[in-house]
Specification:
8% strand; mainly alpha; Zincin-like
Length: 212
């Protein structure tokens, strides 16, 4: 009888341990993690680690850089922190945003917008569509997809240099896709289609993993 009780106690203990471990693994990240991960990445990339950081109360998982003159700030939604469960994944996301900064995507985008706007206004249009709006949409959707790929590549490399798992961005994008946040193939989407993007970042992470 004592042996049976001991066995049952062991089984119950094992089940509780598994449940506890699963709960821990699904725990969302805390806002403090953003500052910690950002500072480590920024220092590795040679950026000011004290840039303003904001965590906003939005359900959608997202993160972005806001530019103002020569300064920038980083914003992460609570939805992103609730979706991710490791600092490696967060590092992949933030390193991608640093890629936009280091690769001067903001400056390039503004310059292209002005040039495309002048071009379409000069060309004119007989339709009811504002040629300026159409020019912006076509130019920026195509160019920004290119920039997103560049930022992905840069971010995976940067995360690895900072000591994070280069697969972090891959896992973050996979979780976003599983949660229903996907980009469909369209000429007006600023991000590459999710499946195509995942194929690319997986290949990139595999390549970077061999060097770190």
């Amino acid at each position: 009888m004592k042996v049976k009780k001991a066995i049952w106690r062991s089984l119950i203990g094992a089940v509780l341990l598994i449940l506890f471990a699963s709960c821990v693994s699904m725990a969302s990240l805390e806002p403090e993690s953003v500052k910690k991960v950002w500072q480590r990445l920024a220092e590795t990339a040679g950026l000011d680690p004290s840039a303003p950081i904001a965590v906003v109360d939005q359900k959608e998982p997202n993160a972005w850089v806001t530019f103002s003159l020569n300064k920038y700030s980083i914003t992460v939604t609570k939805g992103m922190l609730e979706l991710l469960d490791s600092e490696d994944e967060l590092a992949g996301v933030l390193a991608h945003e640093i890629g936009h900064i280091k690769l001067n995507h903001y400056g390039r985008t503004v310059t292209r917008s002005i040039l495309w706007g002048l071009l379409f206004r000069a060309a004119g249009s007989s339709s009811k569509i504002d040629p300026l709006d159409l020019g912006y949409a076509l130019a920026e959707s195509g160019f920004s997809r290119e920039q997103e790929v560049e930022a992905d590549d840069y971010g995976i490399e940067l995360a690895a240099k900072a000591g994070y798992d280069p697969w972090g961005l891959v896992h973050a994008l996979e979780k976003m896709a599983e949660a229903g946040y996907k980009t469909s193939p369209s000429g007006f989407n600023s991000h590459p289609p999710t499946e195509r993007r995942l194929q690319h970042v997986r290949a990139r992470a595999a390549e970077v993993s061999k060097r770190y």
